[in-house]
Amino acid sequence: MGAADLIDQIHSGIFQNERLVKLDTPLGSNTVLVQRVVGSSRVGRDYSFTIDVASADENIELKQLIAQPVTLWLQQTDKSYRPMHGFVHTARRLGSDGGLTSYQISFACWLHFLRFRRDARIWQDVTVDEIITEVFNQHPQAQGAFRFALSKPVQPRSFCVQYEDDWNFVNRLMEAEGWYGYFEQSNDGQSHKLVVTDNLDSFKPASPQTVEFYRAGTNSEADALVQWSGTRTLQSTSIVTSTFDYKSPLYAKGTNIPTIGNQGSLPSQAEIYEYSGAYTYLTQDRGDALSKIRMEEWESRAKRFHGTGALRQLDAGQWFELTDHPGHDSGNVQERQFAVLSIEWVIENNLPVSRSRVEFPHSLQAKVDAMRASFGAAQPAAATQPSDGSTGFFMATVETQRRTVPFRSPFDHRKPVMPTQTATVVGPSGEEVFTDQLNRVKVRMHWDRLNSGDEKASCWVRVSYPNAGNNWGGVFTPRIGQEVVITYVDGDPDRPLITGRVYNSASTPQWHTQGQLSGYKSKEHKGSGYNQLVLDDTTAQNRVQLYSTQTAAQLNLGYLVSQSDNQRGQFRGTGFELATDAYGAIRSQKGLYISTFGRAAANGDQLDASEARSQLSAGQQLLSATSDTAKQHGAADMQAIDSLKTFTSATQSGYGGATAGTASPGQDASGGSGTANGFSDPVLLLASPKGVGITTPTSVHIHAGENTTMSANSDMNIATGKSLVANAVDRISLFAYKLGMKLIAARGKLEIQAQTDGIDLLASKGIKISSSTDAIQLSAEKEILLTSGGAYIRISGGNIQVHAPGQIDIKGSEHSFTGPTRYDGQPPALPKSVVNDQQFVLKDETTGNVMPLAPYRIEGSDGQILARGITDAEGKTVRVFTGTREQNLKMFHEDDQA
Predict the structure, then answer these.
(1) Does the chain have fewer CB atoms within 10 Å around its N or its C terminus?
(2) How many CA atoms lie within 13 A of 374 on its CB side?
(3) pLDDT value at position 381?
């Protein structure tokens, strides 16, 4: 038949009758004629066909075909047709010859569209079938064209990220779950449907169900196998996995799944061990199931069967029963049932036209010729011939496995390896911080176009902190609105991890000088306050500031300058400053030393109080010398010197640092050994080489529960603006060794009283009593006795005695001895008072044991607190003084209720 005759028959509309293949396109039924077909279909993937067609129309616009539906009809042995529906993805003009133009059309199932859509989005707490459904429904061609046939319940995924094209995303999800798909064609050829399954039992049998094996030399158009072979390949024999779950870090998670038996003598070392990633699964059952899927994929590949023949009724996703094969007929029915995993077609249509036509580049002619040649001249069970005598060729090659062996798709599609990214911390509206017990936060990825930016934007994301341990480490929880750096554990898109924070134009750095200022600054939750640590590295002006806006509490070290935000102000001094607008306290349980005796570069012992101790010793020597001298001269000695000795001794008590013996094995204990000075008692010591000043515009209060000792190598001066009042419960003793003593009242009266005893005035030389402007009055209740050299004057009982061993000389211009008369002047009345005092020992009321260093308080009968403090080493309280005798003093341990 010539080209002109062929064109006429195409236009007649009857030319495709009895053809091996025919094609429906949007161009119309009489536009193109199928010449050759090469196609393939695989379970778990897709199917596609490439078709060489001829047309009398040399001006077909190829764009009319792209993404349009077409149907390829395959003639069956009973002359019926089986459809293969799909969508055109490639159209090519091959060339023209004798009035006919050759084109090439490639079409595939709707899954092909998944390759051309890429997305970046997040699913949370959604099952995989729900995720896949959402992805499929983004494609109009897929809507209503798929279903799930799963034998097991589907577990939701807490966090699942797509960051790739739909094709890779869907396939890797199904591979991980052990799912795969095959297609069902509608009888009218207008649609096809994807079936997603996890079990070969969902495959439908071929029609007819049995496939015969024809020996070589048999020539027939029946659907039969002319070649059949089995292949066994070595696979790994076990899979061992491990994973780390940060929610249960002490629990080792892992799986160990061996292969099934009946596979021959397999090498025991063929184990696959791999780290499956971070927290791959929640339960052990889930982990075992995932590893079993991997093992079943290997076991499926271990034994495959391949066949070739004019298998017009077969398609991937079907199963058939093999008959008439000498290697299988002896087996049971289950052993002769095979699932079709993949199929490849090579077809040449039975057109009544010479095969010697021009072969265009990209034509399928070479592939068809190669397949024909592989069968030789006879081409058994492949050639087809309609009534017009035209010859065609149909050959299918299948890959199968037994239905009894589970099938899993190869793990060909991997998760994308995620790059380092940034994201924004998010949370509920109105909140500044949103976190949980692990200080995790929620983030909105910059590429996420679906989430609104609240607490639902992501899973809880862990944060890499400067240090992290069990109740120790660094905590800087990211705040809502901060831009954070996201890395992915093992590059896994489902395992984000915050590893840093960055500034941007909306969140600018607090300190942005020429690198002089660095440090940390926090922000008050829902407020404008902050806390900060500033490290100022200005040349020759190094400074550290620890600051809180709450009461402006701050510690400044080094070169002190005023600072306002990013601005360095004027010089304020050097050294250190501890300041606050509120309260302050310095507490040191074992002792405190405050000194201006310097140490170069702050070297030496922390409590090196040698200068202060030297001063205390000097004072002790002075006190001892003057006390002894005073005692010799009849003055009171200083009994409190012993307490000064005890205090001085307490300032020198060496103690050792940690030694290698206290370090754990393997730790570096070098350095840090030796001894240093300490205090044996919790004393407070102040010392200065150039003086100590205590000043206040109001009052200074000094109290000692026991003794107060003061000494000075030179002068001790006391001056007051009003009164100087000194009271002593027992006695007052004043002693001056060299230059005498003066007691002068420039104004007002000088009173010296001994209210319950006498007064002794003694001088080694003269005693002079004079009144510059008034009288001197001496009075006594009993008598006044003046004596010198044996003579005396006694005034007593209203009488005056003037006696002398020598002359009594009385001279005057007049002498009056009249009388009697008397002067009844009375001496002033003296007040009487009593000072009561008491000291207590605190004991446990249950055991009777003394309670040293225990807090206490003492109350009077009226509930007034008379004393409060801590008992000494012997359990004693301070001595309590009262002006009246208290009959009902109460003492409480401070932990008790009054």
Answers:
(1) C
(2) 16
(3) 44
| Burial of residue 226, with CB atoms counted within 10 A of its CB: 0-12 exposed, 13-18 middle, 19 or more buried | buried
- Determine the Cα–Cα distance for residues 55 and 99; give it in Å rounded to an integer: 9
Residue 143: the pLDDT is 98
Per-range mean pLDDT, top range of 316-320, 324-328, 589-593: 316-320
Q: What is the pTM of this model?
A: 0.79
Residue 825 has pLDDT above 80, yes or no: no
Tell whether 66 is covered by a domain: no
Q: What is the mean pLDDT of residues 60-78?
A: 95
Structural domain range at position 254: 238-304
User: Would you call 582 helix, strand, or coil by DSSP?
Assistant: coil
Residue 168's nearest CA partner among 45, 341, 289, 67 is: 45
In a domain, 561, yes or no: yes
Higher pLDDT, 634 or 171: 171
* Span between the terminal Cα atoms of the chain, in Å: 124
Number of domains composing the chain? 4
Measured over the CA atoms of residue 556, residue 559, residue 560 and residue 563, the dihedral's sign is: negative
Position 702 in a domain: no
Does residue 262 or residue 422 have the better pLDDT? 422
Answer whether residue 897 shows pLDDT above 50.
Answer: no
Task: Specify the CATH number for the domain of residue 456.
Answer: 2.40.50.230
Q: Which amino acid is at 537?
A: D
Among the candidates 304, 331, 352, a domain finishes at 304
Give yes or no: residues 290 and 246 share one domain.
yes
Residue range 365-386, pLDDT digits in tens: 999 999 988 876 555 445 555 5
Q: How far is 77 from 311, CA to CA, in rounded Å?
A: 10
Say yes or no: 526 and 476 in one domain. Answer: no
Which helix (H) or strand (E) segment is 863 a member of? none
For residue 533, count CB atoms less than 10 angstroms from its CB and return exposed for 0-12, middle for 13-18, buried for 19 or more. Answer: middle
Which DSSP string do the residues of 205-268 spell out, in sequence order?
EEEEEEEEEPPTT----SSEEEEEEEEE----SEEEEEEE-TTSTTSPEEEEEEPPS-S-S--T
Helical (H) or strand (E) element with 878? none
